[in-house]
Amino acid sequence: MVSTDKVKGEVRWGILGAAHIASSSFLPGLREAGGGRAALVASRDLARAESYAVAEGVDRAVKGYESVIDSPEIDAVYVALPNSYHARWTERALKAGKAVLCEKPLCVSSAETEAMLETAASTGSWLWESFVFPFQAQHNRLLELLASGAIGEVVELVSPFHFKLSRAVDIRLSGALRGGALADVGCYPVRLAQEVLSTRDPSPGEVVGFSTGNAEVDTETVAIVNYGRQRLLLGCSFTRAYDVFTRVLGTKGQIHLSNPFHPTPVDSIVLLGDGKETVEHPTVDARSFSAALRHIHAALRGEEAPAHLAAESALRSARTLESIVQACGIPHPG
To answer: Pick from 70, 128, 64, 113: which is nearest to 308 by CA?
Structure first.
């Protein structure tokens, strides 16, 4: 098992699904991070996997996700499948002794999330949910500022994630695949709230909001999640121009982040307080996945203790998402 047997040399990754997220985010981050390589990619269609491997520089293509999970050539698995497939294939990989980085959301319900975390604990295999921003220098700087009292007591997190979904046919519009704006991008502000607000309680307080969409999923959701003295205001959609501009509001000032989720060196963190404005650009990596993958590689080689494992946050996120689903009347349970 990778959690007890240290990886020597490069970490060999297997990718489940010839997905856009792997080619646009994971693989560029893997190249920038160094210390690992994409050894296998699997699809249910071998021709698709072969074409993907050639285009994206993966060593070899195979048919069927089992071929990656059962391969002795693989140290870690990246699950880039639709949401409804996450639980099945992540649990298979964990039971096979692989480290797993699973795309968010980890599961489509809190019950599935709890079961998956139990599998990770019982097997000893390490599991990460693919929120990579906690590994970023910008995020660490945000936490430093909050801990120092730079804006006093945090009162409110205002965090959107909007983008324009250009395709009329997309897995994110499928209820059967557990798509929807909240599951796809609204989960980011929910995860950020765990870092910024005092959300140690697994369940939020009162949730109010509204949602619109097609007959299967939400395409826009707005919600207020109350945590007693603090609250999260989130908005997410597939219908607007890209917007992730986030504000952390305190009793003595504010912090503005141009992109808290996938920052690059051009993104800023701005401290507003005492009548002054301080602008910083802490991020050094060009790719948002790079810092997370650099850490995972170090952990698998025994050079660092694993950080930001799914066990630390995934269940709280899943329960909050379920509360928002119920409050907003979103048509599917994930």
So the answer is: 128
6 found inside a domain:
no
285 — phi, psi (to 5°)?
Answer: -80, 145
CB 183 within 8 A of CB 321: yes
Statement to judge: residues 141 and 152 lie in one domain: yes
Residue 71 contacts residue 14 (beta carbons within 8 Å): yes
pTM of the full structure: 0.95
In the chain, the number of structural domains is 2
> Are residues 225 and 200 part of one domain?
yes
Planar angle of CA 46, 48, 52, nearest 5 degrees: 115
pLDDT band at 168 (very low <50, low <70, confident <90, very high): confident
What's the chain's Rg over C-alpha atoms? Answer: 19
Do 42 and 80 reside in the same domain of the chain? yes
Q: List the beta bridge partners of residue 269.
A: 257, 280
Q: How far is CA 119 from CA 3, 91, 308, in A?
A: 14, 7, 17
